[in-house]
Amino acid sequence: MTRDGSEPLDARFRGHDGGCIRVLTLRNDGGKRGGVYNGGTMPAYPHIESYRARLEELIEFGGSDSELNIRDAFQGCLSAYCRDHRERLALVPELRAANNIIPDGTVKDSLRMARGYWEAKDSHDDLDAEIQSKFNSGYPRDNIIFEDSQTAVLIQNREEAMRADMSRPGELHRLIRRFLDYELPEIEEFRQAQEQFKSDLPSVIGSLREAVEQAESENRDDTILIRRL
Length: 229
Fold this sequence. Notes:
- By secondary structure, the protein is an alpha+beta fold.
- The chain has helices at about 45-60, 65-85, 125-135, 170-180, 185-229; strands spanning about 10-15, 20-30, 35-45, 90-95, 105-110, 115-120, 145, 150-155, 160-165.
- The strands form two sheets. It has a six-stranded mixed β-sheet, with helices on one face. The chain has a three-stranded antiparallel β-sheet with strand order 1-2-3, with no helix packed on it.
């Protein structure tokens, strides 16, 4: 309680601080005095913070930063973003796709439609050269992330849509969200067909009901005629 009998008000002010949110809790004692009484940091991008921790762990215990040793870290991060997405999405590892290629991960929706792809590369290789090599071998170019634990490149509609420094949580967060929010043309067409079907359904049901009633009426007339004969 404050001196004037009112309850103290706690207010939190947040500002970005290198990928974390600095939280300062202020107490306003009835306007008579105020100040910081508690402070700390909390992750602004928890999935990316977990990814960085897992990456360091794999390098430390595995003794290598090779693609095969560390790709599990980003796979876990991307899976977590899929679970949090407004739609039901899931990252399926090493699923065979068209042209007999097998990306490291395929994002699927609840209708089992592919929404995007992920491919991990070794940080000691030339990422751009590796991307071109994958495209030459038939990898999809509509919505795919290539990453080497240092740089992430997002390709959408056959063009580079974004490139992120993976040590900067905000950049990586935006790239992943942009990747998951993207709708392939066939997905958009499917949604439009769904909406059109919903719009047409009442008239279709009405026409079907009329056809059934007409058939029943004709059947009754035929039955009456047969009985008379």
